[in-house]
Amino acid sequence: MMATLKRLNLKPASLMAGLVVLLVMLLLAVAAPLLSLGHDPAMILPHERALSPGLAHPFGTDLLGRDLFARTLYGARVSLVVGLGVGLTATLAGTVVGLIAGYMRSLDGVLMRLVDGLMSIPPVLLAVALMAIVRGSLANVVLAITLAELPRVARLVRASVQTMRGRLYVQAAITSGASTPTILWRHILPNIAAPIVVQATFIGASAILLEAVLSFIGAGVPPTTPSWGNIMAEGRSLWQVKPHILFFPALFLSLTVLGVNLLGDGLRDRLDPRGGHR
Predict the structure, then answer these.
(1) What would the 3-class secondary structure string for the chain be?
(2) Residue 26 resides in a domain
(3) Domain assignment present for 41
(4) pTM value?
(5) Domain assignment of residue 221, given as a range
(6) What is the rounded CA–CA span in Å between residue 22 and residue 202?
(7) pLDDT tier, 11 (very low <50, low <70, confident <90, very high otherwise)
(8) Is there a domain that residue 10 lies in?
(9) Is residue 205 part of a domain?
């Protein structure tokens, strides 16, 4: 595995560090049934309520006697799915909106007013409002956070397209009679892909945090689904005497967000030669 990473020439160090952290989290999430020591994350054991970490329960148990190690591992699945799902969907949708708005001036005003309307609402409030309309599920959480994060990508792509539209090779393509989809796909999008990719990683990190906030306040995934947010919410009443209930999911959440941000920083330096030499 290390030999493969070396062949990829993963520099700077932040890119390697972020990738390693995310790979570890991904492996923990995928192998959760094997690593949870036979504990069911939904199994309620009243006689084992709020146990401190030990051999039987490495992370202890929560207020209902559920194993925190198993719940934390399964919670990684929710966070990674949300981060990846929102990162992809918000980036794709925002890129389409930004391309159209930046290149077609007739649609710019309408699309950007819609984007401005979304940006005027804080992402947390917008996501909470959307989740209040629909039932709590993982798919709806991804959709709600996608709508909250989409304007960031749309604004970035629109500004980049407007800059690229005046380049000589784009003007030459227009003069030669190339179609609009061809110009956008072959001449503009490849030249603005780097900042879009970097922005997608930061949106993924923001989505993971936002999902944890939604689950913490009860507006995210159902309580029956282990999530780092609802695990911390269930343990907040005893955080002074049983801090482990909050500590372990918070630690995994922090490490995952840190890994995504390090990956984004590394990609930015890798894809921007000028930034890499600063």
Answers:
(1) CHHHHHHCCCCCHHHHHHHHHHHHHHHHHHCHHHHCCCCCCCCCCHHHCCCCCCCCCCCCECCCCCEHHHHHHHHHHHHHHHHHHHHHHHHHHHHHHHHHHHHCHHHHHHHHHHHHHHHCCCHHHHHHHHHHHCCCCHHHHHHHHHHHHHHHHHHHHHHHHHHHCCCHHHHHHHHCCCCHHHHHHHHHHHHHHHHHHHHHHHHHHHHHHHHHHHHHCCCCCCCCCCCHHHHHHHHHHHCCCCCHHHHHHHHHHHHHHHHHHHHHHHHHHHHCHHHHCC
(2) no
(3) no
(4) 0.88
(5) 74-271
(6) 14
(7) low
(8) no
(9) yes
Question: How many structural domains comprise the chain?
Answer: 1
- The CATH number of the domain holding residue 134 is 1.10.3720.10
pLDDT in tens, 160-184: 999 888 888 888 888 888 888 888 8
